[in-house]
Amino acid sequence: xxRLGAFREPPGFGPVLFVVLSLPGVLAxxxxxxxxxxxxxxxxxxxxxxxxxxxxxxxxxxxxxxxxVTPLRKLTGWSWLAKYRRxxxxxxxxxxxxxxxxxxxxxxxxDWATLVTDxxxxxxxxxxxAALLILGALAATSTKGMMRRMGGRNWSRLHSLIYVAAxxxxxxxxxxxxxxxxxxxxxxxVLAVLLGWRLVQWVRQRRPTLAAS
Amino acid sequence: MLIRRAPDLKSSEITPEHLYWNRREWIAAATAAxxxxxxxxxxxxxxxxxxxxxxxxxxxxxQPDDKPNSYEDITEYNNFYxxxxxxxxxxxxxxxxxxxxxxxxxEGLVKAPASYHLEDFLKPHRIEDRIYRHRCVExxxxxxxxxxxxxxxxxxxxxxxxxxxxxEFTTLYDPxxxxxxxxxxxxxxxxxxxxxxxxxxxxxxxxxxxxxKDLPNQNGAPLRLHVPWKYGFKSIKSVVRIRLLDxxxxxxxxxxxxxxxxxYANVNPGVDHPRWSQATERRIGEFRRRKTLMFNGYxxxxxxxxxxxxxNKNY
Lengths: 213, 315
Hints:
The complex is a heterodimer. Chain A is an all-alpha fold.
């Protein structure tokens, strides 16, 4: 364990991470444009629907990845991971934005009546939209300056909304399915493990206090 | 039960025979397509056939800008849960599906129930080519150049009794051959139904081929229904049984989600699915959404069957 913890940040980790996390988005944009404009089939026969779902799944993966950072850091002792939590979180926001653009611009084609009806009457849409707004608020307050201005306690409180966003995201994914919810259940299981780990930590931290009082 | 044809539609008009035999139209269409033929053989002549149909005022509900989808679109983007729930699963997982020998039973409230080998089932009927609009309940659509036989002819041949009011269709149940049936995502076997007058409507079609070739497995080989004025889930695939009943049969998607999928499932831009609008659709291969048409463009032919019905309730 000591040797594992001694593992330092590899040189160039930041740029490599940036490129890796950008790749699905670059492929989504390039593939969709090529499919729509040139009739290729990178995203199959219905590229709009496919890329919409693809970007939604990548958003969820990145939200879950951002929730992996702290457990991974504590289990391995790699404290240098901490600063990349923001990188992963910002990418999650970038992908949810692309997901929304694919929905509103490519799928609904800015038909305002449909956008409004979806938002007011369709639970999986407004739950997804709530998750998007949370990710937006967290992205907007992700800078060091904002953290200082808000104060660490308030900032932490606001940013614990990521748990709400993650749950909303998985529920949104499940409700969007026609029938088969295998994939949303898989994402939900990963989320449950990550939330469960935090619950265990929390209980462990509280126990001495409880015993003392 | 009302048994009649739409008054404006003679069976002689339905057959596209004169598309094939009316030389003037055919030559004109072929000439128009000749240039494009080099680029996409097999596709353009059918586009021309579609144009020919429109010029002749064929009652296929085709709109002026409708073109048959490519063979790839029609065979790589399928909802056929018997082979998996993803659109690409049917093409990927149905390759080894054996469709011969195939038996079709026609039974229930008929004077002449029988079990047929598929060849004998098809033999008495005229094989026709028809280009149909297809609208999925998921708000996408395609245009298919089918080959097949009239469902009405099959039903009449079995001589329904006077009690018969509905027709039930059943898909093959064989999880060894249809691996999707090992999952319990739907209540197998897939069943669908029509009112008898709907089943006797000249537009109701039993499909055996696509683009002039045998029907690919992923499209419901060797025998599938297409009821073009209804959402796609009504058009049951790989049919092994046709049964005449006096009661409305169950249909699989209605059993799975009664609030979302009804028995009638007529294409209706005015009645939304609970989770999405049905007012528009995305034609596979096109970017701009199209307006969805009442009864998927077949209102003139089928509208009278639903006169006086509350289509909000009977969705």
